[in-house]
Each structure stands twice: as structure tokens, then as C-alpha cells.
């Protein structure tokens, strides 16, 4: 039986299913799976943060059981299962998931290896300081509150959100018929983009991308290529390629090992190790001899290689066959006015700005109302204090409070609220000091009211408040970028994945080469004993040394006149005390070749020349562009006589002057114009005449009047002399005295006052010392001590260190 109010209606099952499914879909989209564009939170996340804020779980308060938090959320706000609440809580506390975690966890919250968290009865949590900033001012009528699921209490429909949480932490969610996948970004860069939009609302996406270059994942790694970033910034969709970070380390036994220190976002570390192990087992990575996972809180996966195997090739194989390189499909989809909307980066940032404008406007109205209410009471106090005796008389003559209130309001222009406040005054508040406090409070309130009204009435002031508050929070929580951006493989250059930094190239007497960061050597005072430089491996010692930048080309000039060209980063890196790699494994050298000189260049410019000098004093000039078509097998640089060999080469501009210094302490200075450009495969002309038997040219330098010539003897004695002390002569003469000492010359350099030099000895000692510690003296003087040598040790080489900050260290 049907009642009068009920009726039966025939409808298609298809129609019913469509309607029900649409209702279900909208419920999932709006109330579960998608974040709000304003605060970047899904409903369950917002309920967790609000519940924790309400029960006082601040970042500076003790942790509390997660079970208590889950219970609070379930009991008051979330009409779903406890596991969904706990999973959301855990995710907000995982530092490898959240770029800026909102939950401060205590206990087992899982791991990047995919380990599950402990049950919520074992774990504890509290809000982070950043999460508190999302909730700040929620009690000042800044956001709308809606009834909870059973209408017993209320919950916020959005939180005030002082930081751009949606783009700062990202979000992922699968709804019905749509999905969102927003990557995290760097807070400092987001703030710069927001400031840019506030300053110039008409700015373009290109302008925004200059200050917000791309995602910044909590797990670091590198993003290959800008195509995907450019696409999602403009359209809201794009695919970003992420690759982990790995480097090679040299082992004592001459082998290399690859160390993976960062993995892509959302990649399971344990699964990655298993996948690499499978590749080793299947002989895909045949170069690997051992695999170890040495990770703790930080990732460290060690892949030991067989002797002689190249690390870069193995890294590329791992990237090809494992999730060490993976993709992140970006979809910038969020709820805008409770409707799902795919937005570009500017639209998302504008949603946050508009939300903050609304929050600050409502907060200002709230504070203004409170200030005006208080000012209204204080105005009543002022009237009462000005007529205190009369008020006391009226109150004493009244039978009760109501009569006193009516008589006061009849005589004075006071409202009922003011009169009640006056009647509530305590006697001590009528003292002189308290009256002054009331006057001072009223003056301060008037200033505050004026400021609050200016925010409401002036849009630019309101936007200024948004910027000021955001900048203050950013300074408090700023964090360096973790994910590096590099070109894609199509636009790939090795220089883009290798830091451009100063390094020292050393080549030992027995032909071992290595590249060592300049920072490995400490700066010491003149005369210091130094630190062990290269070790004394089987009586080997450093014979050639050079400073360069990793992105430069380095030209190796052999003693027989051949030239090899390599990128500096191709030189194997070693530690300060490591032996290095045999030069024959780096260069395709011919038999009996030894390195005579090395030159670092940025490019093969036609405006530059190479001047080479041999042991017998033969010099030759060639245009640098002649060497740009270099080959791995080397090219001829100068033709050398049978009893001669190349000792050095210099870059010149065509108008320089050159100085040759011989082992017996003689020198000659002549203009470069005395030399004409010759082809690569030519002999050259005489530069200096050697008179003493056994004498040879030890160094060739380019004259620079802003520098001095530093000459070092094998006994550690040296000096600096102005170039004006060396007169210009014609090429081919015997020269003049450069150093008066019983010792032979070990080397010579053109140096500036603020330069530093590296000095190496046969015994393997190394001293890095500032040039200014060596005073400038005359050409024919003996000099001062540059380095304290051990018994039977001699100085073998000296070179300049460029663009290195001094870092004073103790001697010895």
C-alpha cells in the first residue's frame, strides 16, 4: 500500500543507473579524490590537520598516538574507514613523498623501500610548523565552516593556507573519469612566481618559468629536458623525465664503483636494487662484479665494476633497463569552486592568490570589528572617567543595577553595552595609572583601525600584505632545490651533467693521470711543510700539473711534438692521495710518448695562437684554429729534432711578449711578432742560445705587466720579480741572469698578487700557498724560501691555482 504522499513512477533502469553513477562520481570527485585548488588538500587531509590543530598537537608540543588522531577524525569529521585516515596521515609525514611534510612522525612510518608503517596504536605524530601555517587564523572567520557528516559539529570547507601547498607538496588522486598528478615545487621559486603575478598580473607563462623553472622532488634526481615542463606549465599536462643521481668512485685496487645517491620520485628503492641484481644475473650488466645496498635514511646503492669497465656506460644501461630513469605524467587538475578544472601553472597560482585575498580580507574585517567593539567600550570608559564623581553619585543613589544603568543612559550618551562595561569596572581601574592605560590603548586602537580600514579599502595594500606574509614564511621555511634540471638526450651535452668547477690535473713521472678538485688542497702560509700530495707510489712523483675547469678542453702536448685533445671531465677523477689512471688508458698514445705540456682552452678561436718551445730552445707559433679538427689518435703539433723534446706551450693573442727561463737561471724576453704563424707539422725557429753545457729551457711564459715572474729553484728557494727587470731582446740571444742560486731552476710562472700556487716535490709533498707571501725583489737576487723540503727532497714543479678562495689551515 502507498500513502497519499507517495507515488509510483515507471523509469528506465538505464536512466536510473546513469543518475546514480553521476551522483557517485561527483561525490568521489568533490569529497574524496581531488584536492582543492585553494589549499591543495583533499577532504581527509584537511580533516586530519584540522582535528590535530583542534586538540593542540602543535610542532612544539609532545607527540600523540596516531590512534588518538584517527579516532578524533573518525568520530567528528570523516565518515569512512580508519585505514583511509591513517594512510593519509602517514603519507603527509613521509619525507620522500612530501617535499615539505605536514606531519612530524615518530615511530615506523614506512620507508622508501616500500615497507609499510606500523599500526596506528604504535606510532605517534604532531603537526609540523609548516602545517600550522596552513591552519593559522582559522579561528578569525577567514573561511567558511560547514556541518559535519552528522551535523553535530562543523568543519572548515577550506583552510586559510598561508603557503601555496598544492604546488609546494603536489598531489595525486584518481577520481571517476579523471585523475590528478601534481608534482611538488620549490617554495622559494613558487613565492617568486606569486610575487611576479601580483606585481604584473599580465605576465606570461615564459616570465613565470624564468623564476619557477620546474618541479622539485623530495628525492632529488635530475629532470631531462624542458619539453615536458614547458608543456604542463602552459596546458596543465606534460610528461617529465626523472633520472636518479649517481657518481663513480675510484677504489684502491684500480677498480671503479658506481654509487647511486638519489632515485626518482615514487620509485621503490628495494625494487630498484632487485631489478639491477636481475640484470647482473642475466648478463645484461656483465660489467658489474658486486652490488650492495648500503642505504640508511639516505640512499647509497653501490655497484662495483670489474677492472677497466667504464662507469658512464653502466649508468646508461641501468637507466635504460630499470626505473633509475622514469617518467612523471603531470596533470594539473584540482577543484576550482567545487568543480574539477585542468589549469596551467599561472591559473593555479592565481587560485592561491585569490584565496589569500579572500582570507586576508575576511580576517581584516574580523579584526576591525573586534577593534571597533573594543574602541566603543573604551569611549564609554573615557566618558565615565571624565565624570567619575557624578557616576559614583548616581550609582550610590540607585537601588539596583538596572536603575543605575537607566539613570546613567538618561544623562549621558552611552549605549547599553558601554553602560554595562562601566558598571563592571573594578575600583582599582579608577586609579590614575589605569586611566592612562585606557587612554594609551584607545590611541593604539585608533591607529590599528585606520590600518585595517586601509587594507579593506585599498587593493594594493591588501596585495602587499599577501606578499609580505608569504615572503616572511618563505624565509622561515626556504630549502635549497634538490632536483636538477638538464637538457634532454636530444639536446644532451656531458657538460650539463658535470659541475663546472676548478680542478687540478696531475700527471706522474710513470704516466698516471688524475683530476682532483681544488678544494682537496688546503691553503697554507709560505714555508709550510704541506700535505701529502700524490703519494710516493713506488718512488713515482708528479712531473706535470695543471689547473683547469671541468668544462674546458685540455690539450696534451707530447715530448715528441704530438698533440691530443680531451674534455677535462674525461680525465678520471681521483682523491688527493690516489695514484690516478694510467695515461695510456685515457689517451691513445704512441710508444715512448710522454706529456710535455698541457693547455686549457674554452674554444679553438682564430684570434689565439699556440707558441711551443723545446728543450734546446726552438720555438714555433701556430694559430689555435689549426687544432680544432683534432683526432683521438692525436695530431702533429711540431716537428722535433732527434736529440730534442718539447718542454712547454703557451696561448698568445698575436701581440704578446714571451720569456724563456733556462735550468741554469738564464732568461730571454722577446716579442711574439718575431715569430710568424707556421703550420702544425713544422719545426720552428731558435728562441734562445744555450751557452752552458747541460743547460736547457725549463719554462716558457707570456709577459703580463700586471703580473710578476715567480721563479722557483729545486732547493725550495724562489722569488718574484717585476717584468720591467727583464729587458726586451731579439729572439735567439743567450739572455740575461734570472736567478742567482747554486740550485737549478724547477719552474717559473707569471703570477698576480692574489694568485695561489701549487708546489709539488719528488717526495710527493704538496703545498698550496698564496703568492702575496713571496715579496717582489730584484732580478739578480737569490730569493726567499718557498717551501721547507725534507732531506734529499727537491722541488719538481709549480703551477698557478685560479679562482680559489683562501682557506687558511695550520702548517704541517
UniProtKB/TrEMBL annotation:
UniProt cross-references to SUPFAM superfamilies, sorted A to Z: GyrA/ParC C-terminal domain-like, Type II DNA topoisomerase
Reaction equations catalysed: ATP-dependent breakage, passage and rejoining of double-stranded DNA
UniProt KW Isomerase keyword: yes
EC code(s) of this entry: 5.6.2.2
Subcellular location: Cytoplasm
Further remarks about this protein from its record: Few gyrases are as efficient as E.coli at forming negative supercoils. Not all organisms have 2 type II topoisomerases; in organisms with a single type II topoisomerase this enzyme also has to decatenate newly replicated chromosomes.
Function statement: A type II topoisomerase that negatively supercoils closed circular double-stranded (ds) DNA in an ATP-dependent manner to modulate DNA topology and maintain chromosomes in an underwound state. Negative supercoiling favors strand separation, and DNA replication, transcription, recombination and repair, all of which involve strand separation. Also able to catalyze the interconversion of other topological isomers of dsDNA rings, including catenanes and knotted rings. Type II topoisomerases break and join 2 DNA strands simultaneously in an ATP-dependent manner.
Protein name per UniProt: DNA gyrase subunit A
Upper lineage: Bacteria, Pseudomonadati, Verrucomicrobiota, Opitutia, Puniceicoccales
Amino acid at each position: 500500500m502507498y500513502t497519499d504522499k507517495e507515488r509510483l513512477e515507471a523509469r528506465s533502469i538505464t536512466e536510473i543507473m546513469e543518475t546514480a553513477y553521476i551522483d557517485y562520481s561527483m561525490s568521489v570527485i568533490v569529497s574524496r579524490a581531488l584536492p582543492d585548488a585553494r589549499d591543495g588538500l583533499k577532504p581527509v587531509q584537511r580533516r586530519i590537520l584540522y582535528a590535530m590543530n583542534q586538540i593542540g598537537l602543535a610542532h612544539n608540543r609532545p607527540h600523540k598516538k596516531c590512534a588518538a588522531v584517527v579516532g578524533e577524525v573518525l568520530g567528528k569529521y570523516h565518515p569512512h574507514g580508519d585505514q583511509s585516515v591513517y594512510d593519509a596521515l602517514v603519507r603527509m609525514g613521509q619525507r620522500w613523498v612530501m617535499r615539505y611534510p605536514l606531519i612530524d612522525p615518530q615511530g615506523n612510518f614506512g620507508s622508501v623501500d616500500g615497507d609499510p608503517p606500523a599500526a596506528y596504536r604504535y606510532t605517534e605524530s604532531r603537526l609540523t610548523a609548516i602545517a600550522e601555517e596552513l591552519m593559522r587564523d582559522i579561528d578569525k572567520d577567514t573561511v567558511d565552516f560547514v556541518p559535519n557528516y552528522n551535523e553535530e559539529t562543523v568543519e572548515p570547507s577550506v583552510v586559510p593556507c598561508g603557503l601555496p601547498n598544492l604546488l609546494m607538496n603536489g598531489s595525486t588522486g584518481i577520481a571517476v573519469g579523471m585523475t590528478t598528478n601534481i608534482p611538488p615545487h620549490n617554495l622559494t621559486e613558487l613565492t617568486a612566481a606569486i610575487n611576479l603575478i601580483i606585481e604584473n598580473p599580465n605576465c606570461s607563462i615564459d616570465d613565470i618559468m624564468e623564476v619557477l623553472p620546474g618541479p622539485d622532488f623530495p628525492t632529488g634526481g635530475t629532470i631531462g629536458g624542458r619539453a615536458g615542463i614547458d608543456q604542463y606549465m602552459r596546458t596543465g599536462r606534460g610528461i617529465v623525465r626523472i633520472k636518479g643521481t649517481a657518481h663513480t668512485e675510484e677504489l684502491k685496487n684500480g677498480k671503479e664503483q658506481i654509487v647511486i645517491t638519489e632515485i626518482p620520485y615514487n620509485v621503490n628503492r628495494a625494487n630498484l636494487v632487485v631489478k639491477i641484481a636481475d640484470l647482473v644475473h642475466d648478463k645484461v650488466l656483465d660489467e658489474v662484479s658486486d652490488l650492495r645496498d648500503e642505504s640508511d635514511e639516505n640512499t647509497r646503492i653501490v655497484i662495483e665494476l670489474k677492472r677497466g669497465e667504464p662507469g658512464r656506460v653502466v649508468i646508461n644501461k641501468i637507466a635504460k633497463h630499470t626505473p633509475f630513469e622514469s617518467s612523471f605524467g603531470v596533470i594539473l587538475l584540482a577543484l576550482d569552486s567545487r568543480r574539477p578544472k585542468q589549469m596551467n601553472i599561472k591559473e593555479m597560482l592565481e587560485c592561491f592568490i585569490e584565496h589569500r585575498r579572500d582570507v586576508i580580507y575576511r580576517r581584516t574585517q574580523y579584526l576591525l570589528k573586534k577593534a571597533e567593539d573594543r574602541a566603543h567600550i573604551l569611549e564609554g570608559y573615557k566618558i565615565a572617567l571624565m565624570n567619575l564623581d557624578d557616576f559614583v553619585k548616581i550609582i550610590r543613589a540607585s537601588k539596583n543595577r538596572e536603575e543605575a544603568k537607566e539613570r546613567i543612559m538618561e544623562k549621558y550618551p552611552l549605549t547599553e553595552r558601554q553602560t554595562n562595561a562601566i558598571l563592571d569596572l573594578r575600583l582599582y581601574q579608577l586609579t590614575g595609572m589605569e586611566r592612562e592605560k585606557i587612554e594609551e590603548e584607545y590611541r593604539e586602537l585608533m591607529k590599528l583601525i585606520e590600518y585595517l580600514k586601509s587594507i579593506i579599502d585599498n587593493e594594493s595594500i591588501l596585495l602587499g600584505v599577501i606578499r609580505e606574509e608569504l615572503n616572511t614564511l618563505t624565509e622561515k621555511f626556504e630549502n635549497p632545490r634538490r632536483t636538477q634540471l638538464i637538457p634532454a638526450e636530444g639536446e644532451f651535452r656531458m657538460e650539463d651533467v658535470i659541475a663546472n668547477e676548478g680542478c687540478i690535473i696531475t700527471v706522474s713521472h710513470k704516466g698516471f693521470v688524475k683530476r682532483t678538485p681544488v678544494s682537496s688542497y688546503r691553503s697554507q702560509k709560505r714555508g709550510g711543510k704541506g700535505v701529502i700530495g700524490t703519494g710516493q707510489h713506488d718512488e713515482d712523483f708528479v712531473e706535470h700539473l695543471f689547473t683547469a675547469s671541468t668544462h674546458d678542453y685540455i690539450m696534451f702536448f707530447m715530448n715528441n711534438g704530438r698533440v691530443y685533445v680531451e674534455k677535462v671531465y674525461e680525465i678520471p677523477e681521483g682523491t688527493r692521495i690516489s695514484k690516478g689512471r694510467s695515461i695510456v688508458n685515457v689517451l691513445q698514445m704512441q710508444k715512448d710518448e710522454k706529456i710535455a705540456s698541457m693547455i686549457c682552452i674554452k674554444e679553438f678561436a682564430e684570434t689565439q695562437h699556440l707558441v711551443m718551445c723545446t728543450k734546446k730552445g726552438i720555438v714555433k707559433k701556430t694559430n689555435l684554429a689549426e687544432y680544432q679538427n683534432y683526432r683521438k689518435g692525436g695530431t702533429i703539433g711540431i716537428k722535433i729534432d732527434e736529440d730534442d723534446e718539447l718542454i712547454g706551450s703557451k696561448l698568445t693573442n698575436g701581440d704578446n711578449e714571451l720569456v724563456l727561463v733556462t735550468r741554469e737561471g738564464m732568461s730571454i724576453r722577446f716579442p711574439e711578432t718575431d715569430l710568424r704563424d707556421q703550420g702544425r707539422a713544422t719545426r720552428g725557429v731558435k728562441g734562445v742560445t744555450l751557452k752552458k753545457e747541460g743547460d736547457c729551457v725549463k719554462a716558457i711564459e707570456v709577459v703580463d705587466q700586471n703580473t710578476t715572474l715567480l721563479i722557483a729553484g729545486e732547493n725550495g728557494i724562489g722569488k718574484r720579480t717585476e717584468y720591467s727587470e727583464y729587458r726586451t731582446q731579439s729572439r735567439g740571444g743567450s739572455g740575461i741572469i734570472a736567478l742567482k742560486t747554486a740550485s737549478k731552476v724547477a719552474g717559473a710562472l707569471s703570477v698576480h698578487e692574489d694568485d695561489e700556487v701549487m708546489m709539488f716535490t719528488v717526495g710527493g709533498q704538496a703545498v698550496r700557498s698564496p703568492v702575496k707571501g713571496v715579496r717582489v725583489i730584484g732580478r739578480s737576487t737569490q730569493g726567499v724560501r718557498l717551501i721547507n723540503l725534507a732531506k734529499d727532497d727537491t722541488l719538481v714543479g709549480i703551477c698557478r691555482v685560479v679562482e680559489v678562495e683562501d682557506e687558511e689551515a695550520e702548517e704541517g
